[in-house]
Amino acid sequence: MSAVDTASGSTAPALREAFPRLRQLERLDRGYVRRLEKQQLRARRFADDHLREVALEMDRRTGEDPSHFDWDLVRAGGRDGMLGLLLPTQVGGSGCLTAQCAVIMEELCAACPGLALIFGAHALGIAPLLLDGPLHWDVLGEVAESARQGEPMLMAFALTEPDAGTDVEDLDLLAKGRISSRARRVPGGYSLSGAKRFISNGSVARWLTVLMPVDPSRPAETWTCFLVDAQSRGFSVARAEHKMGQRACPAAELVFDEVFVPDDRVVGRVGDGAGATLIVLATSRPAVGAIATGIARGAYERLLGWLRDSPDARHLLERQSVQLRLATMVERVHLARQAYMDAAVEVDVASLGGATRNPLLRSLRLVPNRVHRWPAVRRLASSPWTRDALAGFLSRATSNAAVTRSLGLSSLAKAQGGDIAMSVTDDALEIAGLTDAPVRAELEKLWRDAKLCQIYEGTNQLNRIEVYRTLVAGETMALLPPSQRRVDAAGVAA
Ligand SMILES: Cc1cc2nc3c(=O)[nH]c(=O)nc-3n(C[C@H](O)[C@H](O)[C@H](O)COP(=O)(O)OP(=O)(O)OC[C@H]3O[C@@H](n4cnc5c(N)ncnc54)[C@H](O)[C@@H]3O)c2cc1C
Fold first, then answer.
1. From the alpha carbon of 173, which atom of ligand 1 is closest?
2. Concatenated DSSP letters of 257-270
3. What number does the ligand 1 atom closest to the CA of 170 have?
4. What are phi and psi of 128, to 5 degrees?
5. How many other C-beta atoms are found inside a 10 Å radius of the C-beta of residue 387?
6. Are 62 and 248 in contact (CB under 8 A)?
7. Residue of 456, 464, 468 best suited for mutating to test ligand 1, as the one with most atoms within 8 Å of CB
8. How many angstroms separate the Cα of 5 from the Cα of each of 37, 158, 292?
9. From the CA of 169, how far away is ligand 1's center (Å)?
10. What's the 156 CA to ligand 1 centre distance in angstroms?
């Protein structure tokens, strides 16, 4: 593997060299690869300056105390743009597409997956809002501004419930899932009750995108996304979990006790949440594949560095069994990277690319941010007419077949990446397991970090079920919102 950046010790190949498909893509969008390279370099510098050195110490501290959180690191990330990745350029963010986010996650995770997850979970919290036009840009503008001011507001995505994890990540399973949360219609909005579990950034986030059914007897038809202010009455954090890996990012159980959410903080339309969740996962699973690639690469690089630099270890490089293991690691890292980039490019170009390139949406950046707070503008943006128009726009910009295919490739990248991260860290640990050198502690941490890649954003089993349905059986899922949807007086999607 030829290095892009020998100074940082990275073994990742230059993007154009690694992905021939990017060269074709450049003909369509001349800046696409240049922007990817820029983000990769930016993330690599941030990882070298802020993550690598503190990774083990943060893992130790958060292992002892799961509520420990490194706000200084988050502030540094805010200054270096790591909190603005998914924020639209219209509100002062980077407006990164899927491939850019993925390349950034690989770089950060090669240094420290736990700290990187803070930025990844923040982006995931933002993702559902991007499907809702400019309605929540006032909040996103505050989020962008808070990072610039050095007092960052974090975001989180709350889907999983105490009795429903896999079930809320699949359209069919959701219909039968044991859902215990509920969003009840009240004057002017909805009242949210229930619990959400294992929410990354949940205990430190200021804003959360939360999914609940309006009618628990029909969860799939009434699954709805809400934007919740963590300072709302009735919201509390029950606990931060003791984690095995990626510890620097807290996973929390959250309690909603009649939390009021006004109508204009419903994200999308009532009942559109199930399809929207899967669209969000189709765009975020390539980044999970990239997290896994970063972990595998980090383990390979640490092992190789130790084998080359340590007088006690150098003789191991002479052994053919070790050479074969190293060759297999390189193969697997390469495969994991190809899979996530393939899925990400598919999302950016083939499925959701049309929506992001829309000139009308782009021109909204000319509207000053304060305008999004005007009551009349908010009324118009949250009206049924605008919401139907947005749904219609999305359906015209892409198709269920294209989004389903993206979901299949994203699930493939996620599942394959998770297994590769596990096997590469396992092999690396076995080789270094004979030593007392510090590399062993780093590899042991990466092995624990890798395990989570097989679990979150849907377990690998669930993701392989999606791969079967989409890429083997050729199913097309109804993921895009219908162009019209009405709710009855109880606020339930009809
Ligand atoms: C550290 C951490 C961070 C997380 N962060 C977030 C977050 O930020 N936001 C969020 O919403 N969620 C988050 N999650 C939740 C995560 O997405 C779920 O843990 C995951 O979806 C699995 O759900 P579960 O834990 O309830 O397991 P279960 O659904 O109970 O699954 C248990 C086992 O059964 C298998 N299984 C279940 N159903 C099926 C089926 N139909 N077919 C085949 N096999 C099946 C699963 O594959 C798994 O092996 C996080 C989880 C962890 C551990």
1. 41
2. EEEEEEGGGEES-T
3. 41
4. -60, -25
5. 22
6. yes
7. 456
8. 11, 37, 21
9. 9
10. 17
Distance 159 CA to ligand 1 centre (A): 10
Residue 21: which residues within 8 A CB-CB, separation 6 or more?
341, 342, 345
Give the closest residue to 39 by CA, choosing from 86, 6, 74.
86
Q: Is the CB of 251 under 6 A from ligand 1?
A: yes
Place of tokens 């924020």: 87
φ, ψ for residue 162 (rounded to 5)? -55, -35
Tell me the pLDDT tens digit for each residue of 413-426: 999 999 999 999 99
Atom of ligand 1 nearest to the CA of 156: 8
Atom nearest to 200 CA in ligand 1: 8
* Angle between helices 32-46 and 20-28 in degrees, nearest 10: 120
CB atoms inside a 10 Å sphere around CB 319: 11
- CATH H-level, domain 155-274: superfamily: Butyryl-CoA Dehydrogenase, subunit A, domain 2 (2.40.110.10)
Q: Break the chain into its structural domains and give their ranges.
A: 155-274
Number of residues assigned to the chain: 494
Q: What is the pLDDT of residues 100-135, one digit of tens each?
A: 999 999 999 999 999 999 999 999 999 999 988 888
Q: Which pair of tokens denotes residue 445?
A: 């941490």
pTM of the model: 0.94
